[in-house]
User: Fold Tyrosinase copper-binding domain-containing protein from Lasiosphaeria miniovina.
Amino acid sequence: MKLITLLVLCLPLLGLASDQHASVDPEVQAAKDVLQLQKQYQDNLRASIRRRRTVCNPKNLLHRREWGSLSEPEREDYVNAVHCLANKTGQTSQTDIPGARTRYDDFVGCHLQQSPFVHADGLFLSYHRHFVRLYENALRTECGYQGAQSYWDWGLTYEDPRNATVFDGSPWSLGSNGLYVPDRDPVTINVFGQNLTFQPATGGGCVASGPFTPDKYVIHLGPIAGSPQGPQGGLGYNPRCLTRDLDPAFSRDTHPTNVSWELACADVACFNQLLDAPGGIHTSGHFQVGTITLDVLVSPSDPIFWLHHAQIDRLYPIWQGQDLRTRLNQVYGTVTTANIPPSENATLDTTISFGVLDSPKAIRDVLSTVDGDNCYIYE
Ligand SMILES: *[C@@H]1O[C@H](CO)[C@@H](O)[C@H](O)[C@H]1NC(C)=O
Ligand SMILES: *[C@@H]1O[C@H](CO)[C@@H](O)[C@H](O)[C@H]1NC(C)=O
Ligand SMILES: *[C@@H]1O[C@H](CO)[C@@H](O)[C@H](O)[C@H]1NC(C)=O
Ligand SMILES: *[C@@H]1O[C@H](CO)[C@@H](O)[C@H](O)[C@H]1NC(C)=O
Ligand SMILES: *[C@@H]1O[C@H](CO)[C@@H](O)[C@H](O)[C@H]1NC(C)=O
Assistant:
């Protein structure tokens, strides 16, 4: 039979196949693909440590889970530990950051001081991985929390972040959206050297319900990136409520399809650039919460910061876990935020500072989630 006849005979079949394909929602398919990759990562990771008896082994891994899959008492334990950190005296020197008061502020202060070095560059993934790990460790060792750091999978509610369990405003949440404030002006924020303008969205005021309302939680530092700045350039003591302005517009870049594209990257250069580009999933997670989380340097003031960054950190080992041999040794990017001013490339030996939180760490010491100070798996 001639090739052309074969093609003609097959055309109706091809048509049928592509129709069927089109009827599958690409987001549903992408969400399935991501879970499949997560399963692969878990299997590979467990296999890589299966013979270990000491240090980090399959029996003592911490299991980091999505907020919505924690029980209510587990969520409440987490919230109580955050309050505990926010109520403990900190160690940051008042000369360095005059507005820092609490142990929680130590974490905000570390991010503030390291910000010029750890965004949109070769330190981003490693710094934030260890930063979240230190926070998890503080919740556990200083505040009696028994669980693991949880993550916020914004891909589950890409149609509207207001639907996320973590923002449901219950006593078992990280608080609701901010109160809606009408007639606000757009705000312009300097993000990594670019001025970005944000339109008012669905909230804008103080968190309206749950455990982070003004009577229960106060932030101390900033504003820094927006104007007017807080006292002493935003480093001074500026107690005020936690605000939010949940914005479905920015969910357009945190769809399951965005995540599956990210995970399809062949090397860390692609993975890092796609993640942290303007409109990438990292910035879009911040942008859909708005207000405090836009103020880059002090963005950890909103406790959602840790769950967003755990989600970023979750995608990293899922990606690494597809090829542990090569991806546990790759670094891409320089050592200054957005390469401003231009700087050398980061290497495995480059060290990152953690201020009062920890001694400096080399990138090679944090690239694995099951070595050194790390021993966790994402579920
Ligand atoms: C701090 O502790 C006080 C007294 O124990 C308590 O009433 C308050 O709710 C706590 N604040 C936070 C933010 O946890
Ligand atoms: C999100 O919540 C709104 C109501 O607040 C609801 O109408 C909508 O169906 C929800 N979307 C999803 C995907 O659950
Ligand atoms: C951003 O805005 C500030 C303040 O208006 C201005 O000084 C600066 O030049 C702007 N930067 C860019 C890159 O446009
Ligand atoms: C994310 O995915 C959505 C839906 O497929 C798409 O419209 C959007 O352009 C993507 N964003 C980026 C930054 O690629
Ligand atoms: C830094 O890395 C980039 C991308 O891999 C490469 O093109 C460049 O030559 C490197 N720079 C130096 C100074 O090694």
Observations:
- Residues 25-378 form a domain with the di-copper center containing domain from catechol oxidase fold (CATH 1.10.1280.10).
- The longest strand covers residues 187-191.
- Residues 351 and 361 are 5 Å apart (CA to CA).
